[in-house]
Amino acid sequence: MTAALTTVGFVGLGNMGLPMASRLAAAGYRVRAYDIAVTSAPGIDVRPDVTEVAEDAGAVVLMLPDSDAVESVLYGAGLLAALAPGTIVIDMGSSQPLRTRDLAARAAERNVRLVDAPVSGGVKGAADGTLTVMAGGEPGDVARVRPILETLGGRVLRLGPAGSGHALKALNNLMSATHLLITAEALLAGERFGLEPETMLAAVNGSSGRSGSTENKWPNFVLPGTFDSGFALRLMLKDMRIAVELVEATGVPPRLGGAAVALWADAADHLPPAADHTEIVRRVRRPDDRS
Ligand code: NAD
User: What is the pTM of this model?
Assistant: First the structure.
């Protein structure tokens, strides 16, 4: 830990942010945090005003829902103006890559650095410090915050300039969401054919159809019927839309991705607003359920 980075600001203490901020505090960082909906958290100095997280902070982590929230915190609420020159903002949420590029340029005008470092691995990975971190930014900036990122993730990869991490994170989730959807269809068909879900998963997980959905989501959240992964369906849909926009912008026709977005959007219309993303399986199993 370099002297400059012993104090970390942290904005967004939700499903992911709270366990991540707690890990940083447990690792010895002084964490000053802010969340629009949280007034206290064990071991963390929660401040009533977001600009106070800038105090002495060599780096400020953002773990917010989307680019709108990131911009509202940095521009609207005045965090960017409160940061000392040289501070590194680390946007670890899943934001829009083109808006991240713009943000990096706007921050640079104030000599504030921007690293995008979205994560994969879910709430459990956040609590265990085993997240995969997909970083974008200048090599020197990523190197400076690497100790912070390695406290949070077991695998920290720099992918390229600012926005690169957010681009890959969205594309990863487009793949993940599409896997979960096809798994729901295929396993439902298998069940109707007379096969047991547990037996199918045991076979598929040793076969070429396996994925994070069959290895993690089905056994841990779908089969037990808990649907409590901690990653909201609306956030998954947000990531898929970011990805499909990116796919289109590159000239690749988003034929399967577009179809997947339509099916997830239909699920979002028919499931409760706080539904977990694993509840897409419920929608596939009961497409006529309007509740
Ligand atoms: P969440 O909704 O649980 O938490 C977001 C937090 O941000 C909330 O506590 C909310 O009060 C706070 N917030 C919103 N607007 C704010 C503002 N203007 N100022 C201050 N605080 C504000 O979301 P999450 O599940 O923790 O996800 C955070 C980000 O990480 C998202 O971009 C998501 O896509 C991504 N992500 C989530 C998971 C997961 O498994 N949950 C995994 C990987 C990535």
Answer: 0.96
